[in-house]
Amino acid sequence: MTKQGELDIKLWLVIAIVLMIILGPIVFGIKNYVSQIFYDISTAISNFLRYINAHGIVTALFILSVVIVIYLFYRIIKSISKKIKREREERKIELDRINKEREEIKKIIDKKLKFDYKETLNFIDKIKNKIRVSNEFEDLSKYNEPLKDKLERVEAYLERVEDEGYVNSLNQQKTELEEEIKRIKLEQEQNKEAILGKLIIEENRIFKKSELSDKEIEILKHGGFEQVNQFDVLEKRFIPVLIKPYEKLNHSREHIFLVWSVKRLLEHKGVKIIEEHLTKGADITFKHKRKWFALEIETGKLLRAPKQLKKKVNYLNKQYLNRWLFIVSNEKLVPRYAKFGLSTPRNRVQEMFEKLIKNTEI
């Protein structure tokens, strides 16, 4: 070792001794201070733990901590599960819509048009709507271009047809509509004839409304029948009927109805042979136990022709002595007719019929 090296070592030893003299007390003071702090903290913690142990709180806090951790873990798992389920449902709904839209788009792309102006305009709107849908969903994006191509072709088709064939199309539609109207009218006429044939209107001039369908009522009214309400001698109440007046005979609707109503009563009573006379003789004649009877329907008109009334009574007495009866529609007129022969108002026809039959059996 050289002299210079020995001097350096001695110099560093001197410096180290000086530093130990100067820094020693400071380091010792810091060490004591830090030790005191750790001692105080340790003492406080120890005292706290002894206090908790003494009061049984450690176990309670531990259990509570475990419960809280489990609950939080449960809530997190449940939240995650709900989120996953919701996302799956949303995805399923989205997939269902995508599949539905895909099918509709395919139909639109494959559709062949038959010219109808309004239908074509609606079809163009559908194509535009599906183009928006194909932009919205990535799974449908491949249909975007085919839809645009379809839209261009349909618009071009519409423009061409508007220029060249719109009028012809309208004429065709008009012709088809006229043919359809003819077909419907023919069908209606055939139905009408069938219904009229079923009702046998040539033989029946009165129908009970309650026994008819709405269609039958409509056809009968169209054929000249009128609806009236008249007192029925069989049911003893006013009933609605459809009646067709005679074109060439001066018989009132009331007279026509009363003849029909009395015939119903006779049939109900078991009379088999009944005849109706429109011009000569009594209005109704019927046969019972080998004897002929006559019923004269009166509305009051004959009272205004005394000679004709007398002639009628003489004829009835001659042909049907004690076997004929006036049936008067107006109850107030019964006493005037009663001067000429047995008479009854509408509401007592059944009783008078039985009396008439009984008197002839004596």
Largest sheet, strands/sense/barrel = 5 strands, mixed
Rg value: 58 Å
**Percent of residues in beta strands:** 5-15%
Query: What's the SSE pattern?
Result: HHHHHEHEEHEEEHEHEH
- Second-tier CATH architecture of the domain at 251-361: 3-Layer(aba) Sandwich
Count the helices. How many?
Answer: 10
The low-confidence parts are none
Walk across the major sheet and give the strand order. Answer: 4-5-6-7-8
Mean pLDDT: 79
Identify the CATH class of the domain at 251-361.
Alpha Beta
Walk me through the structure.
- 66% of the residues lie in helices and 12% in strands.
- The chain starts with a helix and ends with a helix.
- A hairpin with a 7-residue loop joins strand 4 and strand 5.
- The model has no long low-confidence stretch (mean pLDDT 79).
- The chain has 362 residues and is α/β, with parallel strands linked by helices.
- It has 10 helices and 8 strands.
- It is elongated.
- Helix 2 runs antiparallel to helix 3 (117-136).
- The protein has helices spanning 3-55, 57-110, 117-136, 144-164, 166-199, 214-222, 253-268, 306-319, 334-338, 349-361, and strands at residues 206-208, 226-232, 237-243, 273-276, 284-288, 291-298, 324-328, 343-345.
- The strands form 2 sheets. Strands 4-5-6-7-8 form a 5-stranded mixed beta sheet. Strands 1-3-2 form a 3-stranded antiparallel beta sheet.
- It has a domain at 251-361: 3-Layer(aba) Sandwich (Trna Endonuclease, Chain: A, domain 1), CATH 3.40.1350.
